[in-house]
Amino acid sequence: MSDKDLTRKGFEDSIAGKAKDVKGKLKDAAGGLTGDPGLQVRGKIDQMKGKARDTVGKVEREVDRRTDKDVEREIDRETESDIDREMDDH
């Protein structure tokens, strides 16, 4: 999986998680209005699942962001080393 795939998957997971959270809130509210505690519980479970999936998406994006920064730092270090070697050779 490439970095861009991880970022895209992170956004997809966050969007799906937020949608499930909203769906859960609607179920919870509907259960409260109709006096259906089972629907309320299912709504709260959906909310928890949605928040968890959103968090997974955020973590995926953060991993990708940090990986990009680590690669940039390594390239910078290698470039500096190359420049130092060139300066020493002259």
- What is the 3D shape? rod-shaped
Mean residue pLDDT:
87
Number of domains: 1
Low-confidence stretches: none
Q: Please describe the biggest sheet, giving its number of strands, its sense, and whether it closes into a barrel.
A: none
* Strand percentage: under 5%
Structural class: mainly alpha
How many DSSP-defined strands? 0
Q: Helix fraction?
A: over 70%
What is the element string, with H for helices and E for strands? HH
Number of helices: 2
Head-to-tail CA distance between termini: 43 Å
Radius of gyration, in Å, reads: 23 Å
Overview of the molecule:
The chain has 90 residues and is mostly helical. The protein has one domain (3-89). The chain is built from 2 helices and no strands. It has helices at 3-34, 37-89. The longest helix is centred in the last third of the chain and has 53 residues, at 37-89. The protein is rod-shaped.
In a few lines, what is going on in this structure?
The protein is mainly alpha-helical and 90 residues long.
Mind sketching the topology for me?
Blueprint: H1 3-34, H2 37-89
Helix pairs in contact: 1-2
